[in-house]
Write a sequence for this structure.
């Protein structure tokens, strides 16, 4: 049996603001995020299974990531829940994601890892995630660092 890593890439547009930050990121601004999700597993060896030879069907991975991450995040504004209630009410008709953390690239990738790990089949392991915030800035999450 061979262990294989498979990766699927995604894109979404999202805005955020960093509460009480000491630089320009305190202002609402957006990014064209690029997300890579890598799973680790063994290809299915059952010849009666239509997914034989696959760790997971790329279309199944795409469906999962789109449902859990891309669709909710795309064209949304992510803010820390501690942001002013006045702002929350002013944005009530907008696609707003309120989180318990500072929405930095680093914290967003941890949030993504938790959401995906909770939905993965037990035969699969979330191995690596990369979240590119700009052309030159990204965060990476590795399972081996987060046991």
């Amino acid at each position: 049996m061979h262990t294989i890593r498979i990766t699927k890439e995604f894109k979404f547009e999202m805005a955020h603001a960093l509460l009480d930050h000491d630089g320009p990121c305190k202002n609402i601004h957006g990014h064209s995020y690029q997300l890579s999700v890598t799973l680790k597993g063994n290809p299915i060896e059952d010849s009666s299974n239509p997914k034989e030879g696959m760790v997971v069907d790329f279309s199944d991975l795409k469906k999962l990531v789109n449902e859990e991450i891309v669709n909710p995040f795309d064209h949304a504004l992510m803010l820390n829940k501690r942001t002013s209630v006045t702002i929350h009410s002013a944005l009530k008709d907008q696609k707003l994601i309120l989180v318990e953390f500072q929405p930095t690239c680093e914290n967003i990738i941890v949030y993504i890892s938790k959401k995906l790990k909770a939905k993965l089949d037990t035969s699969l392991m979330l191995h690596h995630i990369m979240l590119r915030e700009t052309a030159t800035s990204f965060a990476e999450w590795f399972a081996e660092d987060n046991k």
Remarks:
- Strands lie at 4-16, 29-41, 76-80, 96-99, 125-134, 137-142.
